[in-house]
Design goal:
Elements: H1 6-31, H2 35-65
């Protein structure tokens, strides 16, 4: 989380979720059960919800501060 751009930080979270999905699918294939597939579908739904809410928050922040740089958004710190 050392990135200063909010969009790049969100992309990093999405990459982490995709890596978790790959591990869950590999686990499902290794064990021969559908448990990993069900968890993977849950993570995909969770990622879609997270992306839509996070992008709405980033758009609100951009509308207020005219920047998506995370270091410039400091009015909540006071």
């Amino acid at each position: 989380m050392t990135r200063k751009n909010a969009v790049v930080a969100l992309m990093g979270v999405e990459l982490i979720l995709n890596a978790a999905n790959l591990n869950l699918i590999a686990f499902s294939k290794y064990t021969g059960t559908m448990n990993g597939m069900m968890f993977s579908i849950f993570v995909i739904v969770l990622a879609a919800a997270e992306a839509s809410i996070a992008l709405a928050i980033v758009l609100n922040i951009y509308g207020t501060f005219r920047s998506v740089d995370l270091t410039e958004i400091d009015t909540m710190r006071e």
